[in-house]
C-alpha cells in the first residue's frame, strides 16, 4: 500500500454518513473537553475531526485511495 500525494489533493467525498456523524460528535466532544483541560493537542484533534466530518473529505483517505462511502 503506497501513499499518493497527488491523489491527496483531489477533493472528492470519501467519508460515509455513519463515519461523518461519528467524526462530528467525537470532534465536538474533544473541543469541549479541550476547553476545560487547556489542551492544545486535543483542540487540534477536535478541529480536524469536525472539519473532516463537515466536509466529508479526509486527505489521508484520499492519499491511501480509501473510501467509506457506500457504492450504489
Would you write up a description of this structure?
Helix 2 packs antiparallel against helix 3. It is built from 4 helices and no strands. The protein is 64% helix and 0% strand. It has a domain of 43 residues. The protein is mainly α and 72 residues long.
Given the structure, what is the number of helices? 4
Q: What percent of residues are in strands?
A: under 5%
Q: What fraction, in percent, of the residue positions are helical? A: 55-70%
Rg: 14 Å
For this entry, give a set of tags.
72 residues, globular
What topology does this entry show?
Elements: H1 5-8, H2 17-37, H3 40-55, H4 59-63
Short description:
The chain is mostly helical.
Amino acid at each position: 500500500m503506497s501513499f499518493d500525494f497527488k491523489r491527496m489533493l483531489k477533493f472528492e467525498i470519501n467519508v460515509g454518513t455513519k463515519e461523518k456523524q461519528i467524526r462530528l460528535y467525537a470532534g465536538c466532544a474533544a473541543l469541549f473537553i479541550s476547553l476545560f483541560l487547556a489542551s492544545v493537542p486535543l483542540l487540534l484533534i477536535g478541529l480536524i475531526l469536525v472539519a473532516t466530518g463537515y466536509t466529508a473529505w479526509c486527505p489521508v483517505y484520499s492519499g491511501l485511495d480509501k473510501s467509506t462511502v457506500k457504492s450504489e
